[in-house]
Design a protein that fits this description.
Blueprint (H helix, E strand, L loop, with lengths): L14 H5 L2 H78 L2 H12 L5 E8 L2 E8 L2 H13 L3 E11 L5 E9 L7
Antiparallel strand pairs: 1-2, 2-4, 3-4
Length: 186
């Protein structure tokens, strides 16, 4: 029995000589510090590997979310275009509605303030401008018309563009004036 407890250690390499060589030093370093470096490197590689799966999944989820939102926007686009078109038409209608009475109000003003012997041959109405051409029997009637236009404070820049006397003693005239659209609104 004494032979069983006896353990012999046999080392064929000389410890002192082997550790002093380059291979021995490298082997000693690789078996101590190198294995820690390899383990840490493997942990980093595995972490990056699993992080890649997570980032790929997030990317796919975001892409699907964007596609769903794009489909939703595409389905609502027609309705939005129709609403915008309707709003534009409503704006045009409001503009027309607010200015539709202006010609009628100008004609009513002219009817009320024009002397009896003046007849209009042409009344041209543009945005903010009025041009009158006509005939009258006396300069007094034309003067009265110009005075009414000036006193009303609705017209600005009243100009007598042309005036001629015919052989039959009638006067042909042309008046240009500007007006404020707001002054003729109801």
């Amino acid at each position: 029995m004494p032979a069983q407890n006896l353990r012999l250690k046999i080392n064929l390499l000389k410890k002192e000589e082997f550790e002093s060589t380059f291979v021995g030093q490298f082997l000693k370093w690789a078996l101590t510090y190198g294995r820690y470096i390899i383990i840490i490197t493997q942990i980093v590689v595995l972490s990056v590997f699993f992080l890649r799966f997570k980032l790929d999944r997030d990317h796919v989820d975001l892409k699907e979310s964007i596609e769903q939102k794009q489909a939703l926007l595409a389905s609502v686009k027609e309705i939005e275009d129709e609403v915008r078109s309707l709003q534009e038409r409503l704006t045009q209608i409001k503009t027309i509605e607010s200015t539709q009475y202006i010609p009628l109000n100008i004609l009513t003003f002219l009817q009320d303030n024009t002397p009896v012997d003046i007849t209009y041959q042409n009344i041209s109405l543009d945005t903010g401008a009025l041009s009158l051409s006509g005939r009258c029997q006396s300069l007094r009637s034309l003067s009265s018309l110009l005075l009414h236009l000036k006193k009303s404070n609705k017209f600005t820049e009243i100009t007598l563009d042309d005036i001629k006397r015919n052989p039959d003693s009638s006067v042909i005239f042309q008046i240009g004036t500007k007006f404020s659209v707001e002054s003729f609104r109801i």
